[in-house]
Write a structure and sequence with these properties.
By secondary structure, the protein is of the alpha+beta class. It is built from 14 helices and 17 strands. The radius of gyration is 20 Å and the shape is globular.
Length: 421
């Protein structure tokens, strides 16, 4: 069944390439959407569809070289500011292809876009970024009814702040390669301030989770709800330290069918972001579970992604948290790009542990004992190399690593121009 679901996701990935070589968002969603394609590129499209990924990212840049915020409350930007996840996707693509021209082009776009956000959305008093929740852009689904677009702009959301932290980290890394020292210092300083502010204002030590958002008009209060994507990004990006990550993954509230976008649910709001489980969010939570070395959490995430894909024979966008059915949510689609990208990531990024760094490929597999065995991945392309990768066993520590049959001290492959096993 695992092989069948992997092959299904690969087939749907091929179906998602438009005639103009961009990545279609879903069967019912034509065109390229900034956050959808960016989260998909990070999950697996950077290495599987690098050219389509590049075309798609450039489609979401305006004539002033600013990243487009194409959806969100009140006309999108600057009420919604999560467009900066584009930067994280652009960096992932660079790590895959090592293209210096792409690095220069992407850095200019990211620098201009971050400057615009610093001018408008960065709050000096708290050190946080204003704006709507990342991807949770249907305000009635996750915000109180009294909140108007102006109120949402003045709020601070966990996921959006995590995205801006990583966007600044990416910009700093790019600036270092391009020898832009002053820019590097600015972005590193901004990222560190964001990290400290996120942990100061969002982390709830007594509950072991990050809060959803901070909101209010005169006196700001903190939402008691958890937010799954933002929490996962805090672990993935290193905003949470090792102990926080372990505590968060073990403390996060779950539903029977997976980690819901928010918890607890809002009464009398129909399922979509509220009372909904989204496979792409579950995929990032899967990564968080692996980083925290929580095998139970990892297995629950795999089950939450594989179950609906197997039952519905497609990678749906979302399903109802309380019954696990795709019927009943407000909007849905088959062949969803970020859902299939997350499905593929189970094999590539988890079971084979493939991770991209600036100049090399490293391996950090996480294989639950229930899924132990020998796995082969043929014709995996990384820059000039074509790899045949074999993983044998279970666990999250590598006992032996060999390249072309020769034992290695490290766990990496550089970009040599020939075939490897």
């Amino acid at each position: 069944m695992q092989d069948a679901l992997y092959n299904l996701a690969i087939e749907e990935m091929v179906n998602a390439v438009e005639p103009d070589s961009t990545l279609r968002t879903g069967k019912e969603w034509a065109g390229v959407w900034t956050r959808d394609v960016s989260y998909s590129i990070i999950l697996s499209m950077a290495h599987l569809q690098p050219q389509a990924a590049r075309y798609s990212l450039l489609r979401k840049v305006d004539r002033n070289k600013k990243i487009i915020q194409d959806t969100g409350t009140g006309g999108a930007w600057p009420i919604s500011t999560d467009r900066m996840v584009w930067a994280v996707a652009a960096w992932e693509l660079y790590k895959v292809n090592g293209d210096g021209k792409w690095l220069e082009e992407a850095f200019e776009i990211i620098k201009i876009s971050l400057q615009a956000d610093r001018d408008v959305a960065y709050d000096a008093a708290t050190g946080l970024v204003k704006g709507e929740s990342s991807f949770l852009d249907w305000r009635e689904q996750t915000y109180p009814k009294w909140m108007q677009p102006a109120d949402i702009f003045e709020s601070f959301n966990l996921g959006t702040n995590a995205v801006h932290y990583q966007a600044n980290k990416v910009a700093a890394a790019m600036a270092e390669i391009l020898n832009q020292k002053s820019d590097q210092l600015l972005f590193e300083t901004t990222a560190e301030k964001l990290k400290q502010a996120i942990n100061k204002h969002f982390w709830l030590e007594e509950r072991g989770i990050y809060a959803q958002y901070i909101y209010g008009r005169i006196n700001k209060i903190i939402s008691p709800r958890s937010e799954a994507l933002g929490s996962a990004l805090c672990v993935l990006f290193g905003i949470a330290d090792e102990q926080q990550a372990k505590k968060l993954v073990s403390s996060m509230p779950l539903t029977t069918y997976g980690v819901s976008c928010i918890f607890p649910q809002i009464p009398e709001i129909p399922p979509y972001h509220n009372n909904g489980v989204w496979p792409f969010v579950q995929s990032y939570w899967l990564w968080a579970g692996a980083i925290a070395r929580n095998e139970k959490s990892v297995m629950e995430s795999i089950a939450s992604i594989y179950r609906p894909a197997a039952l519905f024979v497609t990678n749906k966008e979302n399903f109802v948290a309380e019954n696990g059915d795709y019927a009943g949510t407000q909007i849905n689609s088959s062949n969803m790009l970020w859902s299939l990208a997350g499905n593929i990531s189970i094999v590539h990024r988890l079971l084979f542990g493939i991770q991209f760094e600036k100049e090399q490929l490293i391996f950090k597999p996480f294989v639950p004992e229930a899924l132990k065995g020998i796995r082969h991945l043929h014709n995996f392309r990384y820059r000039n190399a074509v790899l045949h990768i074999i993983v044998d066993g279970f666990g999250d520590e590598i006992d032996q690593f060999a390249l072309d049959g020769v034992s290695q001290k490290g766990i990496c492959v550089s970009c040599y121009p020939y075939r490897h096993t």
